[in-house]
Design a protein that fits this description.
By secondary structure, this protein is an all-alpha fold. It has one domain: Up-down Bundle (Sodium/glucose cotransporter), CATH 1.20.1730.10. It is 76% helix and 0% strand. Helix 3 crosses helix 16 and helix 8 packs antiparallel against helix 18. The protein starts with a helix and ends in a 15-residue tail after the last helix.
């Protein structure tokens, strides 16, 4: 046991838990607990968005992608930018008309309470399953460090994160995200230079070996209408279109990230946070992919056997080969990414549970009663995510498992939001029928195409079926949202 490293990790865990709990006194209302009182600056929200997008899956899964393949994953990140443009044009103006707590209030305004509950319920299932994979990914790291079983590893992180999220609400989530983002980026930079120093010949040698192996290839412009085209996960077309639809769904319709956009002081600052977060996301994915390339060259030169589970390559290298103290810092950085994402999920799940299900059914309760219920909803979701994390041990490659689970449900969510914003004819029955069709179509094609196509296919099916069904089901609601649908 390397006690200096363990001390660094312990200090971090104690500090971040204490820091997050300091925001307890600022949680007087639901607006404080779920939107941070709309007082956080745009740059803090931007960093929080990055932290919410980043998890242990990213930190240990991205190096595994370039270790085994190349830089093709960056094609997906280009689509992330296009998706942000769509969100800024279509969704943000709607979210800042009135005061909303969740994304699904928009669906009630457009279609009615049934669609609000349906979309909110979809998010709860989506985020619980996807977060379960991320929780399991935490255990991979902790079990390497402590040699503990996966159950104990998951329990430690879930309990600590749950404590400060329970106490500090969204304000704690945003500001701990800022601290944790800087920590895991710093840890990645330290590990990059340490690994590079261990490779004889330095960067010129890495560039020569990795270049010959095709590790720096980014773009794959091959296009066809064959099955093989849709099976390629990282092509330019799958990345641009799939990344666009994935980001539009995740950042525009899922409460985990919409909650941050709603926490901004106004629409302008929300837009600033959204676009600036992309620049940071792009830079960090480049960094983690480069780390994977360095590890590939190091293992190739030394003839070392790589772990059977590629996601263990980066954390195992850190723990076994980085200097004492430095290894503890980098492992703490990986845990920072895990905790920031988990805290965001807990708060988003609690806000959707209370604001979209409990409060509409019991509007007579006081603000203080809902605040207490919100805290206990956070605890309940923490317990459930722990349980799902245990099951997720059997779901395969962690990064792609997390993205593919999310993508199955994202398509229907995005499709119904587009149906509401872009059309005036669609109605409540059509929206529900469209979502059911979107789920079904995505499940049917999930083994036939790469996960990067799931959201596009699911949202298209939802939109088309929902629009067509609305003609059969009756007249549209009269309070259609004022948006680009005005010319319809």
């Amino acid at each position: 046991m390397r006690f200096a490293d363990l001390a660094v990790i312990a200090v971090y865990l104690v500090f971040i838990t204490w820091f997050g709990a300091q925001f307890k006194e600022k949680q007087a209302t639901l607006k404080d607990y779920f939107l941070g009182g709309r007082g956080a600056p745009w740059w803090a929200i931007a960093f929080s968005i990055v932290s919410a997008e980043t998890s242990t899956l990213t930190v240990i899964g991205t190096p595994a992608l370039s270790f085994a393949g190349n830089f093709g994953f960056l094609q997906l990140i280009l689509g992330y930018l296009l998706g942000r443009i769509v969100i800024a044009v279509l969704f943000l103006p709607q979210y800042f008309r009135g005061e909303m707590f969740t994304a699904y209030e928009l669906m009630q305004r457009r279609f009615g309470p049934r669609v609000r509950r349906f979309t909110a319920g979809t998010f709860l299932v989506l985020r619980a399953l996807a977060e379960g994979v991320r929780v399991f990914a935490i255990s991979i790291v902790i079990s390497i460090v402590l040699g503990t079983g996966q159950v104990a590893s998951i329990a430690v992180i879930v309990c600590l994160t749950l404590f400060y999220t329970f106490e500090g609400g969204m304000t704690a989530v945003i500001w701990t995200d800022v601290v944790q983002m800087f920590l895991y980026i710093a840890g990645a930079l330290v590990s990059f230079f340490v690994i590079l120093h261990l490779i004889p010949g330095g960067w010129p040698h890495v560039a020569a070996v990795a270049g010959a192996a095709g590790k720096f290839q980014v773009f794959d412009f091959r296009f066809s209408v064959t099955a093989a085209f849709f099976h390629r996960t990282y092509s330019f077309w799958a990345g641009l279109l799939g990344g666009c639809f994935l980001t539009t769904a995740s950042h525009g319709t899922e409460q985990l990230l919409v909650q941050r956009l709603l926490s901004a002081r106004n629409e302008r600052e929300s837009r600033w946070a959204l676009f600036s977060s992309w620049a940071v996301v792009f830079a960090q994915f480049c960094l983690f992919l480069l780390i994977g390339v360095l590890l590939f060259v190091y293992y190739r030169d030394t003839g070392r056997a790589t772990p059977a589970v590629l996601e263990r390559t980066y954390p195992e290298f850190i723990w076994r080969h980085l200097p004492v103290g430095v290894a503890g810092l980098v492992i703490a950085a990986i845990l920072a990414a895990a905790m920031s994402n988990l805290s965001a999920a807990l708060n988003a799940l609690a806000s959707t549970t209370i604001m979209d299900f409990v409060r509409p059914l019991r509007p007579e309760h006081s603000e203080s009663s809902y605040l207490k219920l919100s805290r206990w909803a956070t605890v309940a979701w923490g317990v459930l995510l722990f349980a799902i994390g245990l099951v997720a041990r059997h779901w395969g490659r962690v990064l792609e498992a997390g993205l593919s689970i999310a993508s199955v449900l994202y398509g229907a969510l995005l499709g119904v939001f587009l149906l509401g914003v872009l059309t005036k004819r669609a109605n409540e029955s059509g929206a529900i029928a469209g979502m059911c069709a979107g789920f079904a179509v995505t499940l049917l094609v999930r083994t036939e195409v790469a996960y990067t196509w799931y959201v596009l296919i699911g949202s298209a099916a939802t939109f088309l079926v929902g629009y067509a069904f609305s003609f059969v089901a009756g007249a549209p609601r009269q309070d259609a949202l004022p948006a680009m649908a005005e010319k319809e």
